[in-house]
């Protein structure tokens, strides 16, 4: 097959490309230039898609002996990922930009261009297992539970998954680094990227305020309605947040307060005790079924609401474009805007992704 290997400049994508070459595919490497400031340099494990990353990707491609190109997707990345991120926070929701990036950039913009150029598949360094059985994609958790990225891939359509390759799905990260060293890849010990790639200093509140300005409002006790303080914008908060609330007086019982709800129209941030964070019911919309199989009636599953953690057994049911989820065990800090991914536990084979949907409301 003709395979386009997306090479971020990290160890995972370099080894994924190497395995595609070793499997006999006709491989071409491509690095996506996503930064609107191409002079930006990486700082340790913060940031990605930088000049340094592009150079690392090119050196890896040279060692593998494959053609290499840099494609400028900065404008589309800004529109699809950055602006969506800012808009969601302004609306009082909590987005996951990695989900958006995979959906809109790596497996929409990139895959569409690859198909137009005659490639058969796009290869990435994601940790997830993928197979196609009788033409139907099956996306599962990776062998390395700590690195599993099936959550951020669960919003891909069946057609996108049919043209995807995840060579690292059955591997563990230490083994991938060892393989990179054996292959002579200089990125073997390069730190993994953390946090949000377009906020390299990690200060999300400052970034959002630079885009949205200050939108003052009240911090309100959800139980009594008392105004506890002022804030500079609901975009500086997320449901479940405890630190940085700016409340001087302690709660009457001396226990910490948490953000319970955001009301962007009135500018109100409601806070209260931890017990009020518990969620037992989720309503989500914009459902996607990677395996082309919408739920057939109430279905026992495991739901995950964050990229790392936030899982609970549940019963889910598809109602039109919505998914209604009743949790067997409560989850805390579930926020509108997050993605709910449904898994079917499969012993020994890695949990199968049943579908995903965007959280609209909780109870």
What is the compact description of this entry?
This protein has 363 residues and is an alpha/beta fold. 25% of the residues lie in helices and 30% in strands. It has 8 helices and 17 strands.
Number of helices: 8
Whole-number tally of structural domains:
3
Following the backbone from N to C, one meets helices and strands in this order, namely EHEHEHHEEEHHEHHEEEEEEEEEE
The CATH superfamily of the largest domain is HUPs
Helix content: 25-40%
* Gyration radius, rounded: 21 Å
State the end-to-end CA separation: 48 Å
Strand-pairing-aware structural class? alpha/beta
Q: Please tell me what the overall shape is.
A: globular
Poorly predicted parts: none
How would you summarize the topology of this molecule?
Layout: E1 2-6, H1 11-22, E2 26-33, H2 51-64, E3 68-72, H3 74-90, H4 97-116, E4 121-123, E5 129-133, E6 136-140, H5 150-153, H6 158-162, E7 164-165, H7 173-182, H8 204-212, E8 217-221, E9 227-231, E10 258-263, E11 268-272, E12 278-288, E13 299-304, E14 311-319, E15 322-332, E16 339-344, E17 352-362
Parallel strand pairs: 1-2, 1-4, 2-3, 4-7, 8-11
Antiparallel strand pairs: 5-6, 8-9, 10-11, 12-15, 12-17, 13-14, 13-16, 14-15, 16-17
Helix pairs in contact: 1-2, 1-7, 3-4
């Amino acid at each position: 097959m003709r395979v386009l290997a997306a090479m971020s400049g990290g160890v995972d994508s370099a080894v994924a490309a190497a395995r595609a070459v070793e499997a006999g595919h006709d491989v071409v490497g491509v690095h996506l230039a996503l930064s609107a400031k191409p002079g930006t340099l990486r700082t340790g494990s913060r940031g990605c898609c930088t000049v340094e990353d592009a150079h690392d990707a090119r050196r890896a491609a040279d060692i593998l002996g494959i053609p290499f190109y840099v494609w400028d997707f900065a404008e589309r990345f800004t529109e699809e990922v950055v602006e969506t991120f800012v808009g969601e926070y302004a609306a009082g929701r909590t987005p996951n930009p990695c989900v958006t990036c995979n959906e809109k950039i790596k497996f929409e913009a990139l895959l569409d261009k690859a198909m137009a150029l005659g490639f058969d598949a796009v290869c990435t360094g994601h940790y997830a297992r993928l197979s196609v059985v009788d033409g139907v994609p099956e996306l599962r958790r990776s062998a390395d539970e700590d690195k599993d990225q099936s959550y951020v891939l669960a919003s891909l359509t069946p057609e996108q998954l049919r043209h995807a390759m995840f060579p690292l799905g059955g591997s563990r990260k230490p083994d991938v680094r060892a393989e990179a060293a054996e292959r002579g890849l200089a990125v073997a010990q390069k730190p993994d990227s953390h946090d949000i790639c377009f906020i390299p200093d990690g200060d999300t509140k400052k970034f959002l305020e630079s885009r949205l300005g200050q939108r003052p409002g009240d911090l309100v006790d959800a139980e009594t309605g008392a105004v506890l303080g002022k804030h500079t914008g609901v975009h500086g908060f997320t449901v479940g947040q405890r630190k940085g609330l700016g409340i001087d007086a302690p709660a009457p019982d001396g226990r910490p307060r948490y953000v319970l709800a955001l009301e962007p129209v009135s500018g109100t941030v409601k806070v209260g005790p931890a017990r009020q964070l518990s969620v037992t019911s989720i309503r989500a919309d914009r459902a996607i079924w990677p395996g082309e199989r919408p739920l057939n009636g109430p279905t026992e599953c495991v739901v995950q609401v964050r990229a790392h953690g936030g899982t609970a057994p549940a019963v889910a049911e598809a109602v039109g474009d919505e998914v209604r989820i009743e949790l067997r065990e409560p989850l805390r800090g579930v926020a509108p805007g997050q993605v709910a991914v449904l898994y079917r536990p499969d012993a020994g084979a890695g949990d199968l992704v049943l579908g995903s949907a965007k959280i609209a409301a909780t109870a």
